[in-house]
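re: ur question from earlier - yeah i can do the single chain one, its not a big deal. heres the input i used so u can compare w yours
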Amino acid sequence: MVAEELGLVGVLVVLALFVTLLVAGVRIAKRARDRHTLLVAAGMTLFLTLPAAINGAVVMGLLPTKGLAMPFLSYGRSSSPRLLPRPRVLLGIARRAAVDAPPPVAGAERRSLLR
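and the output i got, formated as tokens:
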């Protein structure tokens, strides 16, 4: 539907947004403080991006039809309530990792390569 209405530019924007979500989710998972939160962050990221990748492959004819909806774009009564808590969980893990981060060491500021 996005391709029909917005063309190639719309499809590329949607793909870029899902890749951005994947990269952000992987970064959040890497910054997790323990194994449990790492697995939760990785799982939430995969549950958001894997159906999008499968849906894209089905639309392009690379995979047989699976019946997976495109996250956040496909219409469905049960899709939105199931998907909306996932980014919130990722943001909570990111916030918790940022709060738990140790304070910077005095005198260890980042030096510029241009000096």
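Helices lie at 2-30, 35-59, 79-83, 85-99. not sure if urs matches, ping me
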